[in-house]
Design a protein that fits this description.
With 148 residues, the chain is mainly alpha-helical. The protein has one domain: Up-down Bundle (Four Helix Bundle (Hemerythrin (Met), subunit A)). The chain is built from 5 helices and 2 strands, in the order ββααααα. Strands 1-2 form a two-stranded antiparallel ribbon. A hairpin with a 2-residue loop joins strand 1 and strand 2. The longest helix has 28 residues. The radius of gyration is 17 Å and the shape is globular. The protein starts with 10 loop residues before the first strand and ends in a 5-residue tail after the last helix.
Length: 148
């Protein structure tokens, strides 16, 4: 079958479309490396690579911290602390940012493959973090000169 949107081929086998559509929202205003990692996580979901998607989401936390000024090569815990102390992770966000971390850790250290639903939540929480840290900032810059 050909996708009517991108004209690329897809296969349906046992009721499963492969490759599927990209999972998660497109986020504007992302720095190049963050955008690349987020795009890769979305494509992992597309091919049911749930472990890889969760690992990438955990890594995105590191990318964001370093892009926002944390020292590259520090511990992962220091990256999370940096994001929190600099206000990029607010108190209401802390639980779900920790969920990204925990799911990424489980994907790394446990044999069992994450379930689709868990990986979907990890990617969606990551998308929301990226939206709040980057997309809203880009939108504010775009409209800052507009009269209210």
């Amino acid at each position: 079958m050909l996708c009517p949107g991108c004209i690329q081929g897809s296969v349906i086998s046992d009721g499963h479309l492969s490759p599927g559509s990209e999972f998660g929202p497109k986020i504007d205003g992302l720095p190049e490396e963050v955008a690349a990692a987020y795009g890769e996580a979305r494509r992992c979901m597309q091919v049911d690579a749930f472990t890889a998607a969760e690992l990438l989401c955990r890594k995105i936390l590191m990318h964001v911290a370093v892009e926002k000024g944390a020292k590259e090569g520090d511990s992962f815990a220091s990256y999370l602390s940096y994001l929190e102390t600099k206000g990029f992770v607010t108190p209401p966000m802390k639980n779900w940012v920790d969920l990204i971390r925990r799911n990424g850790n489980e994907a790394t250290h446990k044999i069992a493959t994450p379930l689709r639903e868990r990986a979907e939540s990890t990617v969606m929480f990551t998308a929301e973090l990226l939206r709040l840290v980057y997309e809203m900032e880009a939108m504010a810059a775009k409209y800052a000169g507009s009269p209210t």
